[in-house]
Amino acid sequence: MARKERYLVGLDVGTSKVTAVVGEVLDGEGLDIVGLGVAESRGIRRGVVVNLEAAVDSIKKAIEEAELMAGVEIDSVHLALSGPQIKGFNSRGVIAVAGKNREITKEDVRRAIDAAKAVSLPTGREILHVLPQDFVVDEQDGIGAPVGMTGSRLEVNVHIITGNQSSTQNIVACVNRAGVNVAETVVEQLAASESVLTADEKELGVALVDIGGGTTNIAIYERGSLWHTAVIAVGGDHFTNDIAVGLRTPVPDAEKIKRKCGCALSAMVDEDETMEVASVGGRRPRVMARRILSEVLQPRAEEIFHLVWDEIRRAGYEKSLNSGIVLTGGGAILDGMPEIAEQIFDLPIRRGCPTGVGGLADHVNSPTFATGVGLVLYGYRNAVGEGARSPVGAGALVRVAGRLRGLFKEFF
Question: Residue 342, CB half-sphere, CA atoms under 13 Å: how many?
């Protein structure tokens, strides 16, 4: 493997921070995280560039830090896309099998997927991902890999994720201006689910809820495939603003208080616990009960989870989440979030931390790095082809998904 190909870089440009993660492909098998760069995000709001120069500076800082740590020069990255402009829907393609023995070939599969993605999109939107879910051969459904089977009619169900062309071009332009090429763009939910969800969870039915700074991203998996994606325009920064307004403190101090003392469930906080709160306009800091902070945070946490639950119900998947819900992203670190989620969803809840990597695994073992590590894993699995190394105990559809991914690399 050429030296350049040994290193994969994930770049997650978020509302609150920019993260660059460098992964090294091992000679045997597997991936080591060898570099990590984090910079405060400026000029990006909810996945959209609002100040080009500031965004370029933030991206440069994160990439330089990662280069220094990994000791390699970064020239291309896998870039995460997020924001309310990302929309997903399911589509279906039907073709007649052309071969003389009616044997289904890779070409038939490709034609079926082309038929499924031949949908009319509003002006200014483009297809980012076409993800096959399952195939139907002559009304026999639930088929994972139809190549080699015999039939006269082939149908495919796919999940199509679209984005706003100008938003994507702007963020890619920022990365290019920072001196780096974009090898591939990957939607944030897809990247995060690579690093935090297990094959069994995807098989049984699970919802990934990625609480970022400006948005909350949702991805619903069932039978090993992605069936629904959505973005809610509320995130961790709303907690910070609530603290700044509720406790009358500057926003940077509100962020520090949130990280140090924040708890989203007031029942978990002792009544006699106190904290120091900075005041505005040069006044002296005040000592307040920590319970007051929780009473500011709890309604916002409940609002986010109610919005998520409304979205899951609207899509009709409330009965399908047999593995429960996985919370990830920076907003999931806040104390009390899983407990509140359990009360609202009445389902098993866990915090999702990146797994499946070696090297600096302890440095990235936090929900904040789920997308960055997921981007590197996504690039690695697409490059190596997952079919040969399917997880033990994974359902047939998961193994098939690996083979499919190898087949349709050009679609991703």
Answer: 10
The residue written with tokens 């289904």 in the block is 104
User: How many Å apart are CA 333 and CA 94, to the nearest integer?
Assistant: 44
Q: Are 324 and 348 in contact (CB under 8 A)?
A: yes
Yes or no: say if 149 and 103 are a contact pair by the CB < 8 Å rule. yes
DSSP 331: G
Spatial CB neighbours of 130, under 8 Å, sequence gap ≥ 6: 113, 116, 117, 158, 159, 160, 408, 411, 412
Q: How far apart are CA 266 and CA 274, in angstroms?
A: 13
End-to-end CA, the chain? 23
Q: Which two three-digit tokens encode residue 363?
A: 């440095």
Q: Give the C-alpha separation, 187 to 79, whole Å.
A: 8
> Is the pTM of the predicted complex or chain greater than 0.90?
no
Strand partners, 136: 155
Please name each of the domains of the chain with its CATH number. 87-164 (3.30.1490.110)
152 neighbors 140 (Cβ within 8 angstroms): no
CA distance 164 to 158: 20
> Which of 227, 236, 199 is closest to 327 using CA atoms?
236
Output the six-digit token pair for 153.
């009619």
Cβ atoms 188, 205 nearer than 8 A? no
Tens digit of each residue's pLDDT, the chain (412 residues): 455 578 999 999 998 999 999 999 988 688 899 999 999 999 898 888 999 999 999 999 999 999 999 999 999 999 999 988 999 999 999 999 877 788 999 999 999 999 999 999 999 999 999 999 999 999 898 888 899 999 999 999 999 999 999 999 999 999 999 999 999 999 999 999 999 999 999 999 999 999 999 899 999 999 999 999 999 999 999 999 999 999 999 999 999 999 999 999 999 999 888 999 999 888 899 999 999 999 999 999 999 999 999 999 999 999 999 999 999 999 999 999 999 999 999 999 999 999 988 888 888 999 999 999 999 999 998 877 643 333 323 333 333 444 444 445 444 4
Contacting residues for 307 by C-beta, under 8 A, at least 6 apart: 216, 232, 234
Q: Which residues contact 102 (CB under 8 A, 6 or more apart)?
A: 150, 151, 152
Rounded Cα distance, 87 and 164, in Å = 9
